[in-house]
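INFO batch 0412 | record 1 of 1 | parsing
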Amino acid sequence: GKKKSLEIQPELIQNIAWGHVRTQVLATAVELDLFSAVHNGNGAVEKIARNLNLPLRSTRMILDALVGMGLVGKTRGLYKLEPEARTFLLRGEPGYLGAFLQFDEFSRHGWSALTHTVQSGKPLSEFVLPDYRKKFFQELVKRIFPLSYASSIALCKKLGIGKKLKNQKILDVGCGSAAWSIAFALADPQAQVTAVDFPEVLEITQNFVQRFRLQKQFELRGGDFHTLPFPAESYDAVILGHICHGEGEAATRKLLKKSYDALKPGGKLLIAEFIANDLRSGPELPMLFALNMLLFTEHGDVFTTKEMRRWLSFVGFKKIASMAVQYPVTVIAATK
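INFO prediction complete | emitting tokens
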């Protein structure tokens, strides 16, 4: 018994228990723009501290913590960014995720109510209020744009948008910032996009469309996509970019049927999601995200590829394929 207890170490539990500290270290480093200071300096802690007007001791400590986390490298006492930090944590870079990481504090407080939510099975009360949710999504869609946009660029390349597939007529359902359809419009200059969302969110959509100078390719339609009619057999592609997880099974299946009816024969339904394996034993991030849906939605969940395939087949889709884009997103493409 003693020998066995010595062979089993609490490393896994300790690392999980300290997870909130890693999150805070990353959030503080982003807030202080520490990654830019490392990138723009010569790697010496003294120069980094001086440029940020920080004490030397605290600068060394947080840099060393980032080294331990794998975001910063250290050679002969000099610090440098690892590839992930250079790509996603440098302000001004296309893939910068700092705004998303800082926004995460907006919802992080809700996790302290997880015990109550697991016991009750009901989401936090304020998150089911329509006005609160609209304001939440207005901010969220801006912050997650780089994540979805990068995934959509990868998806366009896999599908051959602008090469094999041209002159596409696209419906972007619950479009948010239009991160998914903007990538399609850039890859296919002849594409025409109908972007649907609440009028309050479409203000954000319009700003992003104008930023990319794509006004001529976009039509914005304000309304609730649950009740807004979609014209029959009118689109080459329908995009559900991170929509289904907030809907739950019943509403998702209705939306799949509604999307099927809106597609031309041969058209594709593109579903971007955090997909669980068929045993619901992983990957870890989708499993954690399911709890996020428990906290903040009435019916939301993550789904498996097997579930999605079954629902899509029931609706009438014939060819169904899954493809990984940018971690942790999977796109399920179903052809009518």
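INFO post-check: DSSP finds 16 helices and nine strands in the chain.
INFO record closed
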